[in-house]
User: Which sequence fits this backbone?
């Protein structure tokens, strides 16, 4: 594995970013960094849905921020219910996989009065979005142990429509190895809160155990699930998550490479990570980024960190068993980084947890590769075109977008039927990218468009 130099940017630039955008070079790619908004308070989760970035704020709020205007609208405020102590509060969030027809938003938050040892409760709920607000709370899973930190709480829907939820061990290490406890685990449940019939243990929500405090999860294009997990002072972990596996905490810290781990490791009952960091950098959430016009980050995991205050870009081998290349960026520039998300034009959003807690946006200034687009299949006809275009095949599209060479969406049409004409007469003459998201298989394709006259 090659570990490259950390890219640091001066404090002067950080000050500038509070007021304006700034261009920076990552390898051969120029990236524009600006602030989408500073009008959020300690964000935990960020998710793009349509034209908005949704944000959970730890005090007990959920907000939407318009991607173009940066205007914030609050859709839920349950600060009177949420117990926000330390790093607890309003935490994980996920959307129903069929959100357009089932507008449900899933949330994790902590609540209740602390007992004599400082413990309270955590629950998983879902709300219905009525277009302006989240309404009609339904409790799916309740009475999970909570504390002022180490509550886990990342949510992620799998391709089969089931929901994964991470839970922390709340500094009660033995709970991670207790199959009767929901703490220190990954849990899997249906969208209605039931236990899937094919869970590893019948009648149990537990999908995997032996976790300390997992705050990152992503599903790779090959179907593998990759998670991040906090170590104590050593061995932050990057791990492939599999059903029924035990990941060893507190018996094993990272790899089986310490004397105190010899006995448990010899049993073969525990699964090691594929990568670890010592000293720890407090690994948080991660995404898998695909953008051929940003080769330095293309087909890589992008992970944000808290104590490490950086973005880590990682290349995996084809078997997903090792990190073959690792680069670190922006150390200390934005403070503690909690979450990362990809926007509709391959821009990247980062939720910071320090100071005014701005949401940072990174936009590649040349996201479109015309050479690559020329190799893509023909998506629209005619091409070149003067006034109107339509889909080149008989498929329906959820959305057709036209982007300029800076990656900015200049025209967008939703629910496009085969044969529908899209008016492009107002577009200036030039070269564009057409991006088509298909209805039947949820894929997105791009190709070049030449606009004449």
Assistant:
């Amino acid at each position: 594995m090659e570990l490259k130099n950390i890219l640091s940017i001066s404090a002067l630039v950080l000050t500038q970013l509070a007021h304006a955008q700034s261009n920076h070079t990552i390898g051969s790619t120029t990236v524009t960094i600006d602030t989408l908004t500073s009008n959020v308070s300690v964000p935990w989760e960020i998710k793009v849905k349509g034209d908005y970035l949704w944000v959970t704020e730890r005090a007990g709020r959920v907000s939407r921020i318009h991607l173009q205007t940066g205007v914030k609208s609050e859709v839920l405020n349950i600060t009177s219910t949420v117990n926000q102590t330390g790093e607890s509060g309003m935490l994980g969030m996920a959307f129903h996989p069929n959100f357009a027809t089932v507008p449900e938003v899933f949330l994790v938050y902590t609540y209740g009065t602390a007992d004599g040892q400082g413990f309270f409760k955590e629950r998983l709920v879902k709300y219905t979005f009525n277009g302006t607000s989240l309404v009609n709370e339904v409790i799916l899973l309740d009475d999970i142990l909570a504390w002022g930190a180490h509550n886990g709480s990342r949510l992620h829907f799998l391709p089969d429509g089931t929901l994964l939820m991470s839970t922390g061990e709340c500094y009660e290490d033995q709970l991670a190895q207790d199959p009767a406890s929901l703490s220190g685990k990954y849990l899997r449940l249906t969208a209605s809160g039931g236990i899937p019939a094919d869970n590893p243990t019948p009648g149990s929500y537990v999908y995997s155990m032996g976790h300390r405090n997992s705050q990152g999860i992503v599903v790779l294009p090959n179907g593998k699930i990759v998670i991040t997990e906090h170590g104590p002072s050593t061995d932050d972990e990057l791990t492939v998550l599999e059903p029924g596996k035990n990941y060893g905490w507190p018996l094993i810290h990272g790899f089986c490479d310490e004397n105190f781990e010899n006995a448990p490791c010899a049993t073969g009952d525990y699964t090691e990570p594929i990568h670890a960091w010592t000293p720890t950098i407090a690994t948080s959430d991660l995404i898998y980024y695909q953008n051929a016009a940003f080769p330095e980050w293309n087909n890589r995991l992008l992970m944000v960190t808290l104590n490490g205050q950086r973005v880590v870009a990682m290349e995996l081998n084809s078997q997903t068993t090792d990190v073959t290349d690792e680069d670190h960026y922006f150390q200390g520039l934005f403070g503690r980084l909690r979450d990362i998300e990809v926007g509709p034009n391959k821009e990247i959003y980062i939720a910071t947890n320090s100071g005014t807690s701005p949401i940072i946006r990174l936009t590649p200034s040349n996201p479109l590769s015309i050479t690559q687009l020329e190799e893509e299949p023909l998506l629209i006809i005619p091409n070149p075109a003067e006034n109107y275009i339509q889909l080149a095949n008989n498929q329906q599209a959820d959305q057709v977008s036209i982007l300029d060479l800076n990656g900015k969406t200049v025209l967008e049409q939703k629910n496009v039927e085969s044969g529908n004409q899209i008016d492009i007469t107002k577009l200036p003459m030039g070269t564009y990218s057409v991006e088509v998201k298909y209805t039947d298989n949820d894929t997105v394709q791009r190709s070049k468009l030449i606009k004449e006259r």
Observations:
- The chain has two domains: 2-364, 370-451.
- Residues 8-19 have pLDDT under 50 and may be disordered.
- The chain is about 5% helix and 45% strand.
